[in-house]
Amino acid sequence: MSKKYVYLFKEGNADMRSLLGGKGAGLAEMSNIGLPVPPGFTITTEACNEYYESGLDFPEGMLGQVWASLKVIEDQTGKEFGSPTNPLLVSVRSGAVFSMPGMMDTVLNLGLNDTTVQALVANSQDERFAMDCYRRFIQMFSDIVMGIEHYEFENVLVNTKETLGVKYDNEIDAATMRGVVEEFKKVVKRESGREFPQDPKEQLVMAIKAVFSSWNNDRAIYYRKINNIPGHLGTAVNVQSMAFGNMGGDCGTGVAFTRNPSTGEKALYGEYLINAQGEDVVAGIRTPQPISKLKEEMPAVFQQFVDTCLLLEKHYKDMQDIEFTIERGKLYMLQTRTGKRTAPAALRIAVEMVNEGLIDKNTAVQRIDPAQLDQLLHRRIDPNASVEVLAKGLPASPGAASGKVVFSADEAEQMADDGEKVILVRMETTPDDIHGMVKAQAILTSRGGMTSHAAVVARGMGKPCICGCEAIKIDYAKEEFAVGSRVFKKGELISVDGGTGRVIAGEIPMIDPELNDDFVTMLYWADEIRTLGVRANADTPEDAEKARAFGAEGIGLTRTEHMFMAQDRLPVVQQMIMSDTLEEREAALAKLLPMQQGDFYGILKAMQGLPVTIRLLDPPLHEFLPNIEDLMVEITTLKLTNGDPEVIKKKETILKKARALHEFNPMLGHRGCRLGISNPEIYAMQVKAIFYATAQLIKEGVDAKPEVMIPLVIHAKELQVLRDQAAAIAEEIKVETGVDLPVSIGTMIEIPRAALTADEVAEYAEFFSFGTNDLTQTTLGFSRDDAEGKFMHYYIEKKILEENPFVSIDQTGVGKLVNIACELGRKARPNIKLGICGEHGGEPRSIEFCHNTGLTYVSCSPFRVPIARLAAAQAAAKERSAAGVDK
Amino acid sequence: MSKKYVYLFKEGNADMRSLLGGKGAGLAEMSNIGLPVPPGFTITTEACNEYYESGLDFPEGMLGQVWASLKVIEDQTGKEFGSPTNPLLVSVRSGAVFSMPGMMDTVLNLGLNDTTVQALVANSQDERFAMDCYRRFIQMFSDIVMGIEHYEFENVLVNTKETLGVKYDNEIDAATMRGVVEEFKKVVKRESGREFPQDPKEQLVMAIKAVFSSWNNDRAIYYRKINNIPGHLGTAVNVQSMAFGNMGGDCGTGVAFTRNPSTGEKALYGEYLINAQGEDVVAGIRTPQPISKLKEEMPAVFQQFVDTCLLLEKHYKDMQDIEFTIERGKLYMLQTRTGKRTAPAALRIAVEMVNEGLIDKNTAVQRIDPAQLDQLLHRRIDPNASVEVLAKGLPASPGAASGKVVFSADEAEQMADDGEKVILVRMETTPDDIHGMVKAQAILTSRGGMTSHAAVVARGMGKPCICGCEAIKIDYAKEEFAVGSRVFKKGELISVDGGTGRVIAGEIPMIDPELNDDFVTMLYWADEIRTLGVRANADTPEDAEKARAFGAEGIGLTRTEHMFMAQDRLPVVQQMIMSDTLEEREAALAKLLPMQQGDFYGILKAMQGLPVTIRLLDPPLHEFLPNIEDLMVEITTLKLTNGDPEVIKKKETILKKARALHEFNPMLGHRGCRLGISNPEIYAMQVKAIFYATAQLIKEGVDAKPEVMIPLVIHAKELQVLRDQAAAIAEEIKVETGVDLPVSIGTMIEIPRAALTADEVAEYAEFFSFGTNDLTQTTLGFSRDDAEGKFMHYYIEKKILEENPFVSIDQTGVGKLVNIACELGRKARPNIKLGICGEHGGEPRSIEFCHNTGLTYVSCSPFRVPIARLAAAQAAAKERSAAGVDK
Fold first, then answer.
1. For residue B814, what is the nearest residue in chain A, using CA coordinates?
2. B829 appears as a binding residue in the annotation
3. How far is B217 from chain A (nearest CA, A)?
4. Active-site residue A837, yes or no?
5. Does the annotation place B771 within a ligand binding site?
6. PEP-utilising enzyme C-terminal domain: from which residue to which, for each copy (chains A, B) (predicted)?
């Protein structure tokens, strides 16, 4: 006996997705729970794969099983395939495991020919309907199966309507439609060199082959490539008896969601058309009716539909997106699948389903796509604002912004420097535009996809971006773009919504992100489930408070250099850097000490006893000096214009120092703990500031838990030296203040050598915090500033990298180092605290990685804390599900 | 019975070094092979360690064993310790496993007191001798054992000589010397509060304790720290009966080498003094006689000494450095150890000993210090030139150079830019001086040690350097330095010899390195022994020929960018870079193609069928454009001086491109295979050039084996794409030329991610070449250009890093990655070729690492090929010895 290649719907179920495809498994499941599904069968994905393996031959026995299954359907429907009196007509649809645009979609009404169409005329008592079915079938079959261009048929229809003097297809009468059918058959003969196939069995065989072939057409291959769908999965073929929604006033077709996909409200949401086939709803010839109207028009059918929806939701335990057809007052279910929804709807539906007892919290947290929540956490356009949408492009980077239109990067930079908010509008961007992109509020391009230069760079910068907005026609020479009949000149205001791709006229009110009740509930559940801690990165007391409000359990990274950059401090910092002697430098540091102490006091106080990881100075000192190029131009100008010699001399001194400090690769230069090694006095000042602030707070009765973090360590001895110094200072301050200070000293792991020797490093570290930004830069040899501007987009476009490794952690490379470091670190110090404070700490897939690696916490920007909490819960839930702990 | 803590010399042997220390084991060995060694015994290192463990108490039973051993010596010598008539006198010396300056060295004549000294007077019939022995003993014992400052005694001597009106100690008569002894005893009383110990046993106990204590004095600890000698080894104590070389004309003392340590000639080499103790030879009071003179003065003793030397050399199978004493015509051997020698002597001795059948080749190659050979492979001062040595400093970086003296980095840069050769002379250097160091021929500092900024930076640059030359007094204000009575002004010529530390007046003729016969023989043997291949890095046919002459077995790295920099090509390269379209760029590349083809033709031809690894373009494109700062100053100047607007515009266009290409961290930027990914046409041109050149040579009957190396790979997919492109081009050229081209394509492993995913990468690579320069930069996060100029010296000085990791490979960090990559690479492709082409390929310890890791070859600069061949042989020999393969 040959292998089983064909499954009747009643033989399958929802778990057989990989064999029957998504659609086939869904139809089988619905059939099995007793829903009214037109009978049919599915040819398996295995058959498709064997078809390719054998060099485009059907596997042995497959066709026999097809005919046998067709016989079953004939028996069930009481119709017969090719019968001149009561013909069975079928639809043929592809059905891959993952829904794939680009593959053959649907051929309806298969089985019609010059003979069977007459039976349809007789049985429906409606020649126009029958002829219309036939001409649709010829058109679809010829286009999809025989490869004849669609417009050949459209030409015939257009000419016919012109001759008749009518506008819509449905105004063509029966007799004329008969003529159209004849014309269509002529087109087929002319274009393919053969008659339109009249044998229904031949039609079916051709259609099955066409579905199989569509698995490997260029569009499908491309789609699989960009969506990482393996090519070996193959597609299934679904053959199903037709149900006609277009046989009269007691017929209809529609689509519905079991809950509102926009708000999440628990109410049927959808629309239908009386006397129509599926494609008509989309074609927009008539306006569909809201689903509630069906209650009036067909109360019994409506009730049956409502019951079915309830059943399906209960069965699938999720909101469903349903297609149905009504044939002569009888309801048929054609498809059900999990419905797509907005972020607020996703939250509301999940929360309500838990409250209804339909799902548990574990399931609920897994229902939310954290990336989708991102929209809710960015500044966005006030939903109550009335907006004039000019065009829609690809939503390449979320967030919204308003600004003046500008067409060149130079101009964007200049206007931004003059204090204007600008939107940079380009056909596409190149590395030459980076300086303008940096200064723009948002980027809008008319060409390029989600992985174009503009898209990759903007996402890297966290800036709103819309790409490939082809509706806008840019004229650089005139400095304007046209969209439809409107023209926008340089300087005119527009707004862009990077989360939806909408380009909007004028300036639009924005709202700051906030958490609604559903969101808060969901996060509360997430906190119950997750085991991974969530902290925030914050450099000011304000940020620290925001972080706490969003649920952060501590500060994972406080960057002290931002404090050095403050306007009132920079001169002191520069004085420190320009010092020729240790004494001068220490004098300047003494001035900085109370300021830093104040900084730490504020942040520690805001966190009220939650741990605050403070990173000692990290950037190279030259970052605090003026730019060399600027200085050189200034000096040249001063000299040529007889400037004050004193001023020139002073500038030259600064230039000399800046030159001496200048580095070829500052990322790999004299920074981080290397400063601590060469200039111990700088770190000494910072450590003093930390512990004086702590002593002060504890005396005031406020709990304070600083964690001193030493950056850029590559060798255990560096840490040993710096740790000893810090510990000694803490000891002195303990004695001096009489306060029992909590002392915790650790390091960042952000250079491969530290990860590779983490066992040695751990001897001197109470905690590791993975600085995955720098670790990615060094492990991949990618300078982020350079990569994202100059060559990352080639890597994404050419699929060399699946994703920007600065956005989602590179698990194979960087992840391997993190794993090595965790293992070695724990071996040397079993209770070591392990965290991550790179930006990856707020990215869901990276968070899952952190959970799986067994980190103690992730730390991310305050606004991403909710996403991190949810993603951490999902990782835990997933793990529990996999382990079977989930009930 | 208690543990054995004391070994008579005749109870020990050379293999007991760790228990008896180096000196004790040597004395035991000599005693055992029947040489005339004054009898004595050794207290073990274990006793020393237990002394510390027990809190400074002698281990139980140790003293008893000391007295018992002393008894044996009394019996052997017929003398008695403390006897008023025939007293035994002994020397007490420390003797660690490794010779350690800073520890207690020697106390002679122990056992003398007010009574025994009278016996010495009587027995020697020489009161002056006896009193001189006694005062020397008091002086040494008080200084070393009792901690009384040496100058206290020197004062007495100086005053005495003044009173007497004489100049030298030996002019002090017996009576006065008796007075000196009394004065010395008073000094002891005054300084220590106690009488000088008269009990010989007490003296011995105190001396043993002093030796034990000296193990942990500051100087010894410091010495161990900087030489990585573990503190738990402990020191032994040697107690030996005195032999007196100063008892008259039939007495004497001397030192000798069994072969000439300077040239290696097989002839006794040394000197002696009649009627003197060891210290007199060093003190330079009288001029010692050459050893050959002894033949005339004491023919029998001389013959005995010659025989002894032959015996010792034969016994130790190496050139010996010997100390001896003649007491009343009887020869005593006091010490023998392996003699230090110059590089040429080392080569000659090793080669001749193999020819004499004394050692095998395996041993011979291990006798040569590759670092020492370095001297022979640098340009050096013609040994036949007569030189005026002004001063000597620390030999901080080898090589020699002549140039004009200059005292500031700015001036060094300016003069060098004007075509002058300069020597930068500074008290010490700082990061501010880097630009001048780069341009100077050599660096000379008056302060700082072997790990000072100047030393570390110069070694990194491979530039001659002398540090800490305190004899030169620098006056920056006057722009001159004084040395003794001579003064050198700015612009005067000097020469420096970094290999010896000699500062020399004037310009001196230099000679290029060459290999003498011994060197050639040694390398020939090395090649027989080594298993690791040795290739050279060469970018021109001339370098390739030099490499072959030095024995390279192929080219491990040809850098194609140097070819792009040539004067006639740079404009074409710039034209390529400035191109706005692919067509323009391809037109420029078409012009470069024949030039590159010519380059490759030359190198491949020079190597005559040996493999040549050609690295495709590696540096970022902006390296080929003018400097941004220069352009800005030029443009500013042109504008302010009403320059030609056309010129300004052109410069601005270049500036714009340079800005667009400018990178924050070029090391981590758009370079290497990233250029191949973004601009496939560049690599395509290079690959064409390689295979056209190969085809051309093969047609001409010349064997050619190019290996195409793709740099900076981080991901298997990059290599897959670029390999496919290169292989396709090779295939096309095969078809076009009809030549069966050898195609080998591989990659550099120089970024951590490539090492971590080497199994995936190996699928597309026939070979890996470890670019350990870049791998060190990324693994340590050290930009070499910045680290060596700015902070490396802190790391070396503070001993955070043992050594500059760009000089000797960081085995713990970088080495771990290399090991991971080798393992993964071999797993995926068992026959993968593994090489290294970083500068480490020429450094002995790194070469040993490469051998142990199982690499196929190392590649280094042509001049280091001989060192690499030798070091590779040493690694193999060491491994064979360890495995017991060595006979």
1. A753
2. no
3. 23
4. yes
5. yes
6. 517-875
Whether A783 and B669 lie within 8 Å, measured CB to CB: yes
Catalytic entry in A378, A453, A793, A851: A453
Non-local CB neighbours of B224 within 8 Å, separated by 6+ positions:
B100, B230, B231
| Run of H or E residues at B467 | strand B465-467
Same domain, B311 and B387: no
Region B253-257: mean pLDDT is 91
User: How far from A435 is each of A457, A792, A873, B798, CA to CA, in Å?
Assistant: 12, 17, 39, 42
For residue A168, the 8-state DSSP code is S
Closest CA to A767 of A723, A731, A807: A723
Total domain count, chain A: 4
Instruction: Calculate mean pLDDT across residues B253-263.
Output: 90
Helix or strand run (H / E) with residue A46: helix A45-53
By the 8 A CB rule, do A808 and A846 touch?
Answer: yes
Does B668 sit within 8 Å of A786, measured CB to CB? yes
Task: Indicate whether B746 and B796 sit together in one domain.
Answer: yes
B-chain residues near A712 (CB < 8 A): 781
- Asked if the structure places residue B362 within a domain, the reply is no
Q: Which region among A160-164, A450-454, B73-77 has the lowest average model confidence (pLDDT)?
A: A450-454
Measure B532 CA to nearest chain A CA, in Å: 27
In a domain, B22, yes or no: no
Contact assessment for residue A212 and residue A237, using Cβ atoms and an 8 Å cutoff: yes
pLDDT of residue A284: 55
* Option in B637, B661, B677 nearest A636 (CB): B637
Place B347 in a pLDDT band, splitting at 50, 70 and 90. Answer: very high
Q: How confident is the model at residue A464 (pLDDT cuts 50, 70, 90)?
A: very high
Q: Where are the alpha helices (DSSP H) in B78-148?
A: 116-124, 127-144
Residue that is written with structure tokens 């003093």 in the block = A688
A670–B756: do the CB atoms touch at under 8 Å? no
Average of per-residue pLDDT values in chain A: 91
Q: Encode pLDDT of B798-843 as tens digits.
A: 889 988 999 999 999 999 999 999 999 999 999 999 999 988 999 9
| Residue range of the domain that includes B275 | 252-338
CB-based contact A773:A839 (threshold 8 Å): yes
Residue A230 and residue A105 share a domain: yes
Q: Are residues B559 and B695 in the same domain?
A: yes
- Contact present, A223 and A101 (Cβ < 8 Å): yes
Q: Are both A443 and A523 inside the same structural domain?
A: no
Distance from C-alpha of A634 to C-alpha of B471, rounded to nearest angstrom: 44
Mean pLDDT for A697-707 is: 97
A615 membership: H or E segment, kind and range: strand A611-615
Q: Is B502 annotated as a binding residue?
A: no
At position B494, the amino acid (one-letter code) is: I
B44 falls within a domain: no
Tokens of B466: 């002398």
Residue at a domain's end among B241, B260, B291:
B241
Percent of chain B with pLDDT over 70: 98
Q: How far is B778 from chain A (nearest CA, A)?
A: 5
Identity of the highest mean pLDDT range in A151-160, A468-477, A716-725:
A716-725
Q: Which residue of A has its CA nearest to B752?
A: A779
Q: What percent of chain B has pLDDT over 90?
A: 68
Q: Is A5 part of any domain?
A: no
pTM: 0.83
Asked if residue B545 has pLDDT above 60, the reply is: yes
What's the pLDDT score for residue B861?
A: 87
If 0-12 CB within 10 Å is exposed, 13-18 middle and 19+ buried, where does residue A791 land? buried
Residue B528: pLDDT over 60: yes
Question: Do the Cβ atoms of B677 and A800 come within 8 Å?
Answer: yes
Non-local CB neighbours of A632 within 8 Å, separated by 6+ positions: A655, B629, B632, B633
Q: Which of B453, B793, B840, B851 is catalytic?
A: B453
Statement to judge: residues A91 and A199 lie in one domain:
yes
